Automatic annotation (TrEMBL):
This is Rab-GAP TBC domain-containing protein. It comes from Rodentolepis nana (Dwarf tapeworm). Residues 6-287 form the Rab-GAP TBC domain. The lineage of its organism: Eukaryota, Metazoa, Spiralia, Lophotrochozoa, Platyhelminthes. Pfam families: RabGAP-TBC. GO terms for molecular function: GTPase activator activity. Keywords: GTPase activation.
Length: 440
């Protein structure tokens, strides 16, 4: 279900356009071709916005200046060990910079406003300075002060337009109160992977935008979404690895914030370029279970927990340990182990805390379930959550081919799990099966 080899590399330039929603599966070839042309035009309009801004307009746009400075620094240090980004002889760094800058105009509370203007001037081409001047005029005025817009009976009339352009007061409010979530450090890492597959600048932009839509909560909601993911990860560790959970409590590390970069940029820095492409295909193709990235994290901790508990004295050392795992993790082993853990949890889904059952997709959210449905437990049973639940060893690893996460894993001899053992043996079982079928 969730193992190598992923999509054929020769097919990726097309397949990824579908994977990230740039092309539509239910469109005809002609409809997708028309969609591409429209998206290319939209991108060129947004790019022409900032490319043609005057020095004065840039000076008056503090948000834009700040984002541009961050992007310049991030572009310079983006994966320089990768041949494509080693220097700018191929123009890749320039394209990466241009896409990121353009995205700051696309992904903020002004995004709908910009798109409305693109529709309003649907005949605009970058060479048509008059129309671009009108677009730029409106954009910079909204960025600076609503007093530059003409207000008529509660609606907004834009000068230099053919007729009345009407925006609701609520829409104006959103446009004027621009958030600064349009770019976060780390987005350059995500785009870099896409650019090694998608060559065209416009195509790379829309695949990048599609990827960020899939993980929008990581960026748009501030830290709250990531904190929720950390919370869910620790819940899984409590059930599957109680000794490690106890260690994290002792070290005051239950926030799991040392996993920040794992989730923010979807493990991009933990795996090689070849492996991260396969992992993303697994997570975003609709094949993997809900929140499978949490089980990927659990699988990594399963391999590293003993070493972490032995060598780390506080959370800062745990963070350093996690950072040192970068590009040292075997993806095939992680996917096999994570799938086995999921299969075992599925066998005992009725005994899981309701919160865990919901975020793993085993149960509907409480609001959508029948009143008084108490099928799932509401908290972790300290005496052994799964002590009364039966599950099958064979069903956890149907193929019995899960190798250890690295070649240096210590050999262990663990007896088969018997029906009725507690939650600790979920991980013990997975660990045993993985080691007994290591790489030849």
């Amino acid at each position: 279900m969730c193992s190598k080899p992923g999509i054929d590399p020769e097919l990726r330039p097309i397949a990824w356009k579908y994977l990230f929603g740039y092309l539509k599966w239910d469109y005809t070839e002609a409809e997708n071709a028309a969609r591409i042309e429209k998206k290319h035009q939209h991108y060129r309009i947004m790019k022409a916005f900032w490319k043609s801004m005057s020095v004065k307009q840039v000076r008056n746009s503090r948000v834009y200046r700040e984002r541009r400075n961050i992007i310049e620094k991030d572009t310079f240090r983006t994966d320089r060990q990768v041949p494509l980004f080693r220097d700018d002889s191929s123009g890749a760094l320039t394209r990466l910079y241009d896409v990121l800058i353009t995205y700051t105009f696309y992904n903020n509370d002004l995004g709908d406003f910009v798109e409305y203007l693109c529709v309003w001037c649907d005949q605009v081409r970058p060479s048509e300075n008059a129309n671009l001047t009108g677009l730029r005029w409106m954009f910079c005025r909204v960025m600076r002060d609503c007093s530059y817009l003409y207000v008529t009976r509660g609606n907004i009339q834009a000068p230099n337009s053919n007729g009345l352009n009407v925006f609701s007061p609520f829409f104006l409010h959103r446009a004027l109160h621009i958030t600064v979530t349009c770019y976060f450090q780390g987005m350059n890492d995500l785009l870099a992977v896409i650019m090694t597959i998608i060559e065209g600048e416009e195509d790379a932009f829309w695949c990048f935008a599609g990827l960020l839509e899939l993980i929008a909560d990581n960026f748009s909601d501030g830290p709250s979404s990531l904190y929720s993911q950390f919370h869910n990860l620790f819940k899984l560790i409590e059930i599957l690895m109680p000794n490690f959970a106890h260690f994290l409590r002792e070290k005051e590390a239950t926030s799991m914030s040392f996993c920040f970069k794992w989730f923010l940029i979807i493990f991009k820095r933990e795996f090689s370029y070849d492996d991260i492409k396969i992992l993303w295909e697994t997570l975003f193709s609709g094949v993997a279970p809900k929140n499978f990235h949490l089980l990927i994290a659990v699988a990594i901790f399963d391999a590293e927990a003993d070493s972490i508990m032995r060598t780390c004295q506080d959370m800062s050392q745990i963070l350093q340990y996690i950072n040192n795992l970068s590009e040292m993790i075997n993806l095939n082993n992680v996917l096999s182990r994570a799938q086995g853990i999921f299969n075992q949890l599925s066998e005992v889904r009725d005994c899981l805390p309701n919160e865990v059952a919901v975020f793993l997709g085993f149960a509907p959210p409480p609001s959508s379930g029948p009143p008084g449905d108490g099928r799932h437990r509401s908290s972790v049973d300290e005496e052994g959550l799964l002590a009364t639940c039966n599950f099958s060893l064979e069903s956890a690893f149907p193929s019995s081919n899960s190798p250890p996460l690295n070649d240096n894993a210590n050999d262990k001899s663990i007896s088969a799990v018997e029906v009725g053992e507690d939650a600790t043996n979920l991980m013990t079982n997975a660990h045993t099966m993985a080691e007994s079928s290591g790489d030849p």
